[in-house]
Amino acid sequence: MVLPAYDELSKMRVDFIFSFTQYEIDAIARANIIQIDGCDVSFCSLEDLIILKIFSGRAIDLEDVKKIINKNPNYNYQLVYNTLKELGEAINIDLISRLKEIE
Predict the structure, then answer these.
(1) What is the pTM of this model?
(2) Are residues 25 and 48 in contact, defined by beta-carbon separation less than 8 angstroms?
(3) pLDDT tier for residue 6 given thresholds of 50, 70 and 90
(4) Is the four-CA dihedral 22, 6, 49, 98 of positive or negative sign?
(5) Could you tell me if 67 and 50 are in contact, meaning their C-beta atoms sit under 8 angstroms apart?
(6) Helix 59-71 and helix 46-56: axis angle, to 10°?
(7) DSSP 8-state symbol, 65
(8) DSSP classification of residue 72
(9) Distance from C-alpha of 45 to C-alpha of 100, rounded to nearest angstrom
(10) CB–CB of 5/15 below 8 Å?
(11) Where are the domains of the chain?
């Protein structure tokens, strides 16, 4: 569940994510917190960005993942693999094949 929002003053788009699954709860716990103008802002981890883009399956997202992995070869592959396997089994889609096609 994602609620997209846009702040006219800052011209910034923000997605509010409401967690209902264990994966979402874990992903939020792994978020990177960065201070921007004195405010803590949470950004998803590199691994969760990869997972979410592979999960979406859109061609542009899969292309993004190729670039992300090329620039960050030391990402936590095991976390990505295990999470995609679990999510894929839950929705009956082979997400591991998507990951393997990118490698």
Answers:
(1) 0.83
(2) no
(3) very high
(4) positive
(5) no
(6) 150
(7) H
(8) -
(9) 20
(10) yes
(11) 2-102
